[in-house]
Give the backbone structure.
Amino acid sequence: MKDLMELLVREIGVSPQQAQGGAALLFKAARDKLGAQQFGTLLGKVPGIESLISQAPAAGGLGKLFGGLAAAVGGGNTAILAELVGGFGKLGLTQEHAQRFVPVVLDYLRGRIGAQDAAVLEKTLRA
């Protein structure tokens, strides 16, 4: 996961802590939407993912970040979206940061789990 964190820091311009927290929030949202078994099947090849998820910040209040994150991950499950938005806000991430997280994480995963599994994950995050 260290290489993903470095990529997020470099590509988005966030701190290492923000990169870790933001990625953890996205993976947690995916696990919550997919269920633990399917999530494990898709992302079981990615070492350290469960450890990363355990470090996701708790949800907070909704702010102006909602629009950017909703555009980035779609408007599906409101409770999961609210948790994402609150967590990103707690990390001090802006709307622009939120919009850029999903594509960077998905591009990273395509090389680790394959394009087909990454597409399933993308569809899940955007649903």
User: Anything to note?
Assistant: The radius of gyration is 13 Å.
